[in-house]
Amino acid sequence: MSVTLSSVDNALKTYYLDAMSSQLNNASPFYAKIKHSTENIYGKEVKKMVSYGVNGGIGAGSEDGDLPKSSHNDYNVFTSTLKNLYGTIEISDKAIRASASNQGAFVNLLNAEMDGLLASSKYNFQRMLFGDGTGKIGKVTAISNGVISLSSVIGLKEGMLVDFISSSGSVLIGGRRVLTVTNTSTCCITVDGIEITTDEVPVNSFVTLQGSYKKELSGLEAVFALESPIYGVDRSTHLYTDPITTLCSSLTESAIQKMIDELDERSGSQPDMIICSYGVRRKLLDVLSFSSRFTDTMQLDGGFTAITYNGIPVIADKFCPKGTMYFLHTDDFTMYELCDWEWIAGDDGQILKQVAGKPVYTATLVKYAELLCSRPYAQGKFISITEA
């Protein structure tokens, strides 16, 4: 049986889509655990009514006295825009024709393209879960002989196409391919094309994924970015939106328990997941070992395994900022989505389309979604932990 565009389209729809969706929806233990919903979507926005405080219509009285005066719950509406998440594969007409009579060869070609798309999509989707929605990955600290030093290269990988954005938010240079990433005592990258200088990209500019500035998911850092509004609500006049952020240079069991207790006191619930960097997890293991504590493990949704602290799973994630430990009540997080991962199809139903003026075909995977936390005050974070 020969390979045709119709047979490729059918494979993308019936075989690859389910496999891609399943793996992307288990991108991380955190994402696998939170809720997913198609509710509270109005047009291009998510609008979630949240309550805070307690009902005021409670009181004690005498046997024949007046009943307590009624008082309603307090509400606010969190509003955020659905984000457009895309992933594209590209296959040349030459490759299709060369393998048209060899179905096995074309399957291998298509598998390679889909594996690459899956790895890239999973990597960037997982990275977004820790972002603040702006898409900022690293801040430029210096440039010398084409080597660009950054505040962090967590979230950068060879092959990514990135933009350089000024501190005021304008695009300075767009669509450069990352050639090398170095994460040692100095974090730096090199990119293709004409050598970049500080005249073009000044210090304090930053790097984002191509075209993604202010278009990414509102990840965990959006909850903890106290200097910014959250989901359209001014934090300065709505203090219930503030999570707990604590400077904790020396990690101890007492400090961890204090955070758990404080979150319980203010929200009535304890965190059910702790997420940290790899270095912080090693530090926690040192702390527990020093106190002769036995470290249990547990199985999580999505097939993940985690160590535990007093029954709470502790997850190490490569995208978690260094020296950071999040204390999360995952029931408060929901991924609102217009649909699950889908292929963009034309009016004729075709997924694979020729690029205008080029001998190549592309197919694009899409998801319209936004991550929202309904109780920011029930979340906590340690920063500046000395790692092991």
Detailed description of the structure:
The protein is α+β, with helices and mostly antiparallel strands. 23% of the residues lie in helices and 31% in strands. It has 7 helices and 22 strands. The strands form 4 sheets. The chain has a 7-stranded mixed β-sheet. The mean pLDDT is 90.
Topology of helices and strands:
Layout: H1 5-24, H2 29-33, E1 35-37, E2 41-42, E3 45-52, E4 74-81, E5 83-92, H3 93-98, H4 103-128, E6 138-144, E7 147-150, E8 161-165, E9 171-183, E10 187-191, E11 206-209, H5 220-224, E12 244-247, H6 253-267, E13 273-276, H7 278-290, E14 297-299, E15 305-309, E16 312-316, E17 325-328, E18 333-337, E19 342-343, E20 353-354, E21 360-373, E22 380-383
Parallel strand pairs: 1-18, 12-22, 13-16
Antiparallel strand pairs: 2-3, 3-4, 5-21, 6-7, 6-11, 7-10, 8-9, 8-11, 9-10, 13-17, 14-15, 15-16, 17-22, 18-21, 19-21, 20-21
Helix pairs in contact: 1-4
Summed up:
With 388 residues, the chain is α+β, with helices and mostly antiparallel strands. 23% of the residues lie in helices and 31% in strands.
Biggest sheet strand line-up: 12-22-17-13-16-15-14
Which structural category do the helix and sheet elements fall into?
alpha+beta
Low-confidence stretches: none
What's the alpha carbon Rg, rounded to whole Å?
24 Å
Helix content: 10-25%
Termini separation: 57 Å
Question: What is the molecular shape?
Answer: globular
Overall average residue pLDDT: 90
Q: Count of helical segments? A: 7
Bin the strand percentage: 25-35%
How many extended strands?
Answer: 22
**Main sheet characteristics:** 7 strands, mixed
The helix-strand sequence is HHEEEEEHHEEEEEEHEHEHEEEEEEEEE
